[in-house]
Design a protein that fits this description.
single chain; 404 residues; alpha+beta; Rossmann fold; Elongation Factor Tu (Ef-tu), domain 3; 8-stranded antiparallel beta sheet; 7-stranded mixed beta sheet; 9 helices; 24% helix; 29% strand
Amino acid sequence: MKSYKPEDKRVVGFVGHRGSGKTSLVEALLFDAKATSRLGSVETKTLALESDPEALERQMTIQSNVGFVEWDGACIGIVDTPGDANFWGNANRAISVVDAAVVVVSGTDGLQPQTVRCVKKLRDSGTPFAIFVTKVDKENQIYEDTVAEIKADISPNAAVLTPPIQPGADFGGVVSLVSNRAFLSAGKSGDVPGDMSDDVDAAREMLIDAVAAADDELMEKYLEEGSLTEQELAVGLKAGFLAGEVVPVFVGASTQDCGALPLLDFIKSSFPNPLERAVVKGVNNNRENEPVERTPGDGALVAQVFRTHHDAFAGNLSYARVFAGSIKPSQDVYNANREGGDRPSHLYLPMGGTKNGSEVKEATAGDLVALTKLKATATGDTLCEKASPGNFFSKQIELLTQRG
């Protein structure tokens, strides 16, 4: 695997209620980006990122699972989080280490309690998010009601980017309002059906309204000329998304491999890179009255461990997000929580575990990495360098441990 600069990385969490379709959407993303050779299925227990026998048997995510895809010149780190309220601590911790999120909503159930809880956490931490409505191919889909509920309860500026072609049992795909292309089942694409042209034009006007409302210059141009170019729409959409003023809504049927491709394109073009997140705040050597700050990507190492796991292939693993600096195999690191040293043996960009992941010689800002054989480090700990007092970061790092 090639190396990527921080500005070419994305770190994305997939959150939502249990059974909303998060894992199926992640499997579709992995398959469409050719990170896997087959479309994984929850029902057949053929998941790329899940290896826990209990989770596979119960058909639910228990721990946050980590993987990555390479897409259009970017490396996208993926965290698939639990949706069951009993495992909220795991999801909450994972949300704290991503730079943006996709809130997955079931098109057969609408908004559910954990969905609302995740949205609150994302807003409290200032993390931008998009929404993906799944299962619109089901006979009992309630797509229209779900979108209305999203606009009423999450954001009046929620804007559908990929409306469905005939939701329900006769589902035919989705249409990208940005590229004006149809995305069909099995990852195929084509022209927009002719009989949908009026509906697509109306939906695109609604999208332009939402985007223009978040930007005075675009609004002025829109009022004067009556439309926006594809480029203007894309730029305005990204700005509104990052500011939290527009909530993009994607639609699809993940088990039919439909709808993931427009989402991948949007993650690459519009989700923030690791250098665009807020300043990381902490305290000096666990002393609450001595705050310190670090600009993401700069200077000495700052990494947060958000999961620990025993891997049959590599032994004990510590999954960490690198916020600043870099870390290498056999490098001495300082655990700010334990106020002592530790040393990883190997580093992997995981694909669930390490067996199908990529061993790397260095992890830098924006990497989600699995560290092997740390002896004194636990979930929630911060790893840094013992170079100066200002580099002692503890678990009070503000953006890493906000509680939901």
